[in-house]
Amino acid sequence: MKTVSFIGHRDAASEIRERLMNEIENVIIYDKADIFLVGHQGGFDRITYSVLKELKQKYPHIKYSVVLAYMPDYRIAELYGGDTVYPEGLESVPGKLSILKRNEWMIKHSDILICYVTRITGGAAKFMDMALKMGKKVINIERADKL
C-alpha cells in the first residue's frame, strides 16, 4: 500500500487533466498506490478530485480523501460528502497557515507526490522541494518527469 498526495497551482487549467490521469494510473499500476490525498483550494485540486472520482470506477480498490485545511462546514459536506479528512491539530492553526500545515501533513503521510509546478516560486514549488528533501518520489506533470 502506498499513499499519494497532490500539490499544484490554483490556476491550473483543464488541459492538464489527461497528463494527470496518466500519472495517477501509472502509480496505481506500477507503484501499487491505493490511497490518494488531495486538497480543495484551487484548480489543480478540483481537476485531481474529478480524475480520482473517475478512476475509482476503473480501480474500485483505490481510496481517496479530500484533506481539509479548515474545520468542515455544510458546504464541504455538500461538495465532498464523506470523502474528507481533517488532520488532527489543525484546529489550533491560525488562518492561511492552515493550508501550509495541511500540505505539510499530506506530504509527511505520503510515499509519492504528484504535482503541477510551473514556476520556481510560490507554495507549490516550496512543497515539491520539501517532498524531495524528505526523499519522497516526486512526479511533476508539468515536466512529466520523475524526480
Brief characterization of the structure:
This protein is of the alpha/beta class and 147 residues long. Helices cover 40% and strands 21% of the residues.
Task: Describe this protein's structure.
- It is a single chain.
- By secondary structure, the chain is α/β, with parallel strands linked by helices.
- It has one domain: Rossmann fold (3-Layer(aba) Sandwich).
- Helix content is 40%, strand content 21%.
- It has 5 helices and 7 strands.
- Strands 4-3-2-1-5-6-7 form a 7-stranded mixed sheet, sandwiched between helices.
- Strand 6 and strand 7 form a beta hairpin.
- Helix 1 crosses helix 2 and helix 4 packs parallel to helix 5.
- The chain is globular and about 40 Å long.
- The model has no long low-confidence stretch (mean pLDDT 89).
Features:
Rossmann fold; single chain; seven-stranded mixed β-sheet; 147 residues; 5 helices; 7 strands; 21% strand; alpha/beta
Write the layout of secondary structure elements.
Layout lengths: L1 E7 L8 H13 L3 E6 L4 H16 L4 E5 L6 H7 L3 E2 L11 H12 L3 E5 L6 H11 L3 E4 L4 E2 L1
Parallel strand pairs: 1-2, 1-5, 2-3, 3-4, 5-6
Antiparallel strand pairs: 6-7
